[in-house]
Amino acid sequence: MYGLPEVAHKYNMWDVDLKPHYLTVIANKGEWREVPAAHPAAMLPPTNHQRLDRLLLALPKCQPNTIELSEYSALGDTGAQRLCAALFGHPALRELRLAKTGLGAAGTSLVAEVIAVHLRLTLVDLSHNAVRDVGAGSLADALKASRALQTLLLQSCEIGNPGGVMLASALMHRAALGSLTNLDLAFNPIGVAAAEALREAASRSNSLQRLSLAGTPLDPTLLAAVATALTPAGKARPSATRIFEHGTAYQTDFVYKSMLREHRQARGAVLRQQVVEEQQLLDVE
């Protein structure tokens, strides 16, 4: 375990000598929180955007594989812009947990861009944010592009029928068939149209193993039909040759990764410039 003195050494809060690839950035309600010793973590309460910016400065050096900012309600769409600008240049990331962080559709769209281009990001939690149907549409587009994401948690995100249908369509998309295993849509106001689309998607998916619709206003009979569409033991993931449409799997994979790397770098630069320009305007005011 690392205590306050260790993590506060650099950037007034980080020790850049912490072991890379084994770090979790944790900010929960602005309090320091213990993590099991088997999972070393840098624990940081970013109570404002200035602290968040300092945290992001440390990411390239520390390379944490998990970022946990759940219940950091001050993040919002503005903080998400800063965060995502940094994450485009952070390929080691595997888990991004942003539940109850005050995100709206704009912030969700930025997170969706990160999902689409990251080759190692396997879990994203956006529960209890105002994702709504617009944000769900952005996430659906990201699912179609992602070849890594396995778990997407969207509890209580105000997603209705349109958003549910778009997510179901993404599940049926070729690239998504071999990736997503867990989709949580509990406590969202989705209706019959979305449930029917999700049932169809579950029956076709080669990877989906868990689909949560708890707390939705759906008829128990329809919920049972959706559950029946999922195979109990899960389904075999499609082979690489089924996912790639042209050339050999290796050649396509190499080109795909190169394109994503270039896109991440370019998009990250654009977002960082936007942050700089907005800060300059604030300084003038």
TrEMBL record:
<dbReference type="InterPro" id="IPR001611">
    <property type="entry name" value="Leu-rich_rpt"/>
</dbReference>
<dbReference type="InterPro" id="IPR032675">
    <property type="entry name" value="LRR_dom_sf"/>
</dbReference>
<dbReference type="InterPro" id="IPR052201">
    <property type="entry name" value="LRR-containing_regulator"/>
</dbReference>
<dbReference type="Pfam" id="PF13516">
    <property type="entry name" value="LRR_6"/>
</dbReference>
<protein>
    <recommendedName>
        <fullName>Protein nlrc3</fullName>
    </recommendedName>
</protein>
<keyword id="KW-0677">Repeat</keyword>
